[in-house]
Amino acid sequence: MLLEHIDSPTDLKKLTIPELPLLAEEIRHFLIQKLSATGGHLAPNLGVVELTLALHYLYNSPQDKFIYDVGHQAYVHKILTGRKDRFDTLRQKNGLCGFVKRGESEHDVWEAGHSSTSLSAAMGMALARDMKGDTNKVIAIIGDGALTGGMALEALNHIGHEKRNLMVILNDNEMSIAPNVGAIHNYLGKVRSEKIYRKAKDELDWLLRKVPAIGGKLARTAERVKDSLKYLVTPDGMLFEEFGLKYFGPVDGHDITKLMDTFKQAESVNGPVLVHVLTVKGKGYSPAEEDSHKWHGITGSYKIESGQVVKPVGPPMYTEVFGNTIIELAEQDKRIVAVTPAMPGGSGLMKFMEKFPDRMFDVGIAEQHAATMSAALAMEGMKPVFAVYSTFLQRAYDQVVHDICRQNLNVIFAIDRAGFVGGDGETHQGVYDIAFLRHIPNMVLMMPKDENELRNMLKTAVDYNDGPIAVRYPRVAATGAAIDEVMTSIQIGTWETVREGDYAVILAIGPMVQVAEEAAELLKREGINVRIINARFIKPLDEKMLTALAIERIPLMVIEEGAVQGGLGSAILEYYCLQGIQPASIHIAGVPDVYIEHATIKEQREESGLTAEAVAQKLASLRVRKRQRAT
């Protein structure tokens, strides 16, 4: 076994080139075995095994900077840099992160969980290197899907202008999370298919190598012939060369020798270069090759032989409830269209896409475009449902403020993964959207306590015609609640009391309502009866109920799976302050002012004090303080 002797890039360089394909197969077997227990991003990493080996064999990390876009395809990089013995802890609390993590290793030089950041980071590192007078290499590895992100194109524009020495490796597997869409994808498809040009180019390169000591005028003529051939026969690299990057490829991303030869050729060029590498997502594991969309990221374990993913038995995920409900609503209302930024599967819209292909728009990794396009759809009388993860909605903040809310347009935001997300960790936690949405004028923001209320909230959103409205829901299984036969709209800005009590009031949203119920049962054993209010509208607040609670002089506790700063608790405090109302007391339990790292959702809630036990203990302490005051 070669892999057992590899604990650093130095160990890798001791191998011969013919041994590298054998090591590649061992690494694939290692990944398939380890991820069958932990889950993770299997298909992307199986596709970059040879590419990662070639990079670490030729270059000297961490002096040479490898900048992975998104970072979920860096498992092989982690294996080669001394972390293979920790793979049993992948995506688990205090274990290996599923993305590149600077605190894990000196070889991890850039962190990202969102796409399209690597080229900007590479530009910054190249500029810093040159200003310091260093000579290290800067290499960005970006997928073809990430090129649909506007930030990547902005960076390409600047890279071409600055002409600094850096290498961009375009890992082209025709996929992001879902199949890629758009003009850039189609352009790359044409590049992949232009075999006539590649054959002619290879023959010309062979001929030129046969001519001894090509120099001067003949060399310049040869280059012009090659360029003319390129423009005449194919767009191969033309887009990138117009940006100012010298183009190499396409090259087989699973042929280590060809990869290294191409990298060496690229190194001979002064200025920025782009190496176009063709890879197969899921390479070496037939279930992942056949369905790389499904195997992009597996959240649980799977059976290696069959590829069967082990799923827990129980109610559907909220995402599935959303997907089915939006189909029902779209059958009744032809104005409804769905918009998603490269997440039709993750957002539960695959069935919608099949049923309403003309009303489904996957815009690629382009959240800003998706938001503004939704604004225009709404302006023209449609009912766009912008389905997006909470963490990715952050990328469209200006468009939400400027294009949607400022113009008070009827855009429906379906915000998935709102709250903790488990193994994906800090880059994906959906805990900030309350804070960055509720202060925007015209916005309505709500969160359901169960799947039945989610359905009714979606109905509410479709019926609402006074501006933007958002419904956020978590990455957990639904509660198994009974479903109403007919969906009904909920009066905007109204809360509901779901449990009576006179000792204190818990104001909870989303899955925290269930946590509050569990806490109430614990307190009941001690003779303490607490009231629970489903504060389902985060904006507008139920001001009538808040005023009544203050008059009642009953202690309040807000629990929310979102950032404390700017959250529901903050909104309630602001209301009381602005109205000059003094409640009896108010306590807030939410996500503290730190980034919560990867773990199970249960562990993340425990870390943040968002458990039934923590809530019950806090409320029970009020009785102690009351007794102390009485004595």
Tally of alpha and pi helices: 25
The CATH topology assignment of the largest domain is Rossmann fold
> Mean pLDDT score, rounded?
90
Strand order of the largest sheet: 7-6-8-9-11-10-15
> Hey, roughly how much beta strand do the residues contain?
5-15%
CATH architecture of the largest domain: 3-Layer(aba) Sandwich
Form type: globular
- Assign the CATH class of the largest domain: Alpha Beta
Could you tell me the number of beta strands?
17
Radius of gyration: 27 Å
The portion of residues assigned to helices is: 40-55%
Query: How is the main sheet built?
Result: 7 strands, mixed
* Amino- and carboxy-terminal Cα gap: 74 Å
Q: What are the low-pLDDT stretches, counting only 5+ consecutive residues below 50?
A: none
Structural class of the secondary elements?
A: alpha/beta
The name of the CATH superfamily of the largest domain reads Thiamin diphosphate (ThDP)-binding fold, Pyr/PP domains
How many individual domains?
A: 4
